[in-house]
Design a protein that fits this description.
Tetracycline Repressor, domain 2; single chain; Arc Repressor Mutant, subunit A; about 210 residues; about 70% helix; mainly alpha; 11 helices
């Protein structure tokens, strides 16, 4: 007699299950999303969930990676593809306005919302480290702009990067509270109005370099 198979079925679609788990965590946050709610959202039993993903903490870690790749990679692309330290954040903020209000998905940033009231050891630190990594990436890009003469030499890269992080996290909460894409794009424009312009001396030096090339 054939032995009954246990755990996840052969037709199990891991990405589809992660998408459903992501929506549950995104909508309710990490602390409020129970295993029972996850199994209902993912349409699998608890044994299948544990067999495929381990415990809830491990599942959440995989969900964050899935979310980053599927719905939040535009930030890295903006920083990598835009040629200047001003164009990159301008693109990032406007793409954020679109992403945080995308129809058919919970609004705001899943990572920011999941961190609300989160006290689970390991998860709280991981989410904080992720937010800090984004700010560090902004700071690196700003410092490159200063070194290239695009931004004034006295630009406080750390403060400006922190400002960007605060704007993005604020946009996430505004989206959760019902702000539209247009509302968030207005915030993006205001944020960029505070972005430092190139110093006159730096601009003149760049023009001289171009004329001598």
């Amino acid at each position: 007699m054939a032995t009954e198979r246990r755990g996840r079925p052969r037709s199990f679609d891991r990405d589809a299950a992660l998408e459903k788990a992501m929506r549950a965590f995104w909508e309710h946050g990490h602390e409020a999303t129970t295993v029972a709610e996850l199994t209902r959202a993912m349409d699998i039993g608890a044994p299948s969930l544990y067999a495929a993903f381990g415990d809830r903490k491990t599942l959440f870690g995989e969900v964050v990676r899935f979310y980053s790749a599927a719905h939040a990679s535009f930030g890295e692309r903006a920083c990598a593809e835009e040629p200047t330290a001003r164009a990159a954040p301008a693109r990032l903020l406007h793409e954020t306005a679109a992403a945080f209000t995308r129809p058919g998905l919970p609004h705001g940033c899943m990572v920011v919302h999941a961190a609300t009231n989160c006290t689970t050891p390991g998860i709280e630190e991981a989410l904080r480290d992720r937010r800090q990594a984004d700010i560090t990436a902004f700071e690196t890009r700003i410092r490159a702009g200063v070194a290239e003469g695009e931004l004034p030499s006295d630009t406080d890269a750390a403060a400006l990067a922190g400002y960007m992080g605060a704007v993005l996290q604020g946009m996430s909460q505004q989206a959760r509270d019902g702000a539209s894409r247009s509302d968030l794009e207005s915030l993006a424009d205001l944020a960029m109005a505070a972005w430092p312009a190139a110093a006159k001396a730096d601009t003149k030096r760049q023009q001289q370099t171009s004329s001598n090339a």
